[in-house]
From TrEMBL:
Residues 40-132 form the Methyltransferase type domain. GO terms for molecular function: S-adenosylmethionine-dependent methyltransferase activity. The lineage of its organism: Bacteria, Bacillati, Actinomycetota, Actinomycetes, Mycobacteriales. This is Methyltransferase domain-containing protein. GO terms for biological process: methylation.
Length: 263
């Protein structure tokens, strides 16, 4: 089973809306003055790039995205003339050496087949003294909607353990992130947590995003037979806690990372 990232409304419902909340915190955490050229690698539907345009006063923002569906959604969501999207990946960025002042990525680094090569490419297109930064979900613990999903899936299916992002992506922890950025030659490396609320109005609001097939957990969910999927739904329904109004109030933690390019 591969990770699917093609259907933009399903992605937005699943994690895009929460990534937008993290993006605002991330940009407050990231030192950056007005002006400058930004690049958002793996820009998806534009959660981070659009937040940069609204809040960071950039001279321009270039999104790099391999999925044409996501790229089209990112373009359609803004008419800001400072924004463009180019086809490409973290390991093959269509840009000149040192073209950007700020190189950022949201929920991307752990999906890059060779993260050290991806960071080397991000470093290449960032000027000396510029910043390479981003964030990834804390799959092992702090991204609670995904954590509770896999805990239930693993209780019903031993094979689900190998698909659990907390297992698949050991990179998404503070020390491995620091080690990777150091190995990529970035200096002044920092890694910090960013927490945002993920509040669901009821269980259906919580469950529906897992039916969109976008990403590892929804992909696994939709690979199950109807009977097995109903069993998983029932276990999750019994496990998640509600408040007195029936809402499910969880937290999503991302690990933000940054480093400086020195030549």
């Amino acid at each position: 089973m591969t990770d699917a990232w093609e259907i933009d409304p399903a992605y937005e419902l699943y994690v895009g809306r929460w990534s937008r909340l993290v993006a605002a915190q991330f940009l407050q955490w990231l030192p950056a003055g007005p002006g400058g050229a930004w690049c958002d690698v793996g820009c998806g539907t534009g959660a981070l790039a659009h937040t940069v345009l609204r809040t960071a006063e950039p001279a321009r923002v270039v999104g790099v995205e391999p999925s044409e569906r996501f790229a089209a959604a990112a373009r359609a969501a803004t008419d800001d003339p400072r924004f463009e999207v180019r086809p490409g990946t973290a390991e093959s960025i269509p840009a000149e050496d040192g073209e950007f002042d700020r190189m950022v990525s949201a929920l991307v680094l752990n999906f890059v087949p060779h993260p050290i090569e991806g960071l080397a490419e991000m470093r290449r297109v960032t000027r000396a003294g510029g910043t390479v930064a981003g964030y990834v979900w804390d799959y092992a613990d702090g991204m609670q909607m995904i954590r509770v999903f896999w805990d239930a899936a693993r209780a019903l299916d031993e094979a689900a353990a190998n698909l659990d992002e907390g297992v698949r992506f050991p990179l998404c922890r503070p020390q491995p992130l620091r080690d990777l950025l150091d190995a990529a030659g970035l200096t002044g490396v920092e890694v910090d947590p960013l927490d945002v609320p993920t509040v669901f109005t009821d269980f259906d609001d919580f469950w529906r995003p897992f039916l969109g097939g976008q990403g590892p957990a929804p992909g696994y969910c939709m690979s199950l037979s109807a009977e097995r999927r109903a069993e998983l739904r029932g276990l999750l329904d019994a496990r998640v806690r509600r408040d007195e109004t029936g809402r499910i109030a969880l937290t999503a933690r991302a690990w933000a990372f940054r480093g400086t390019v020195s030549r």
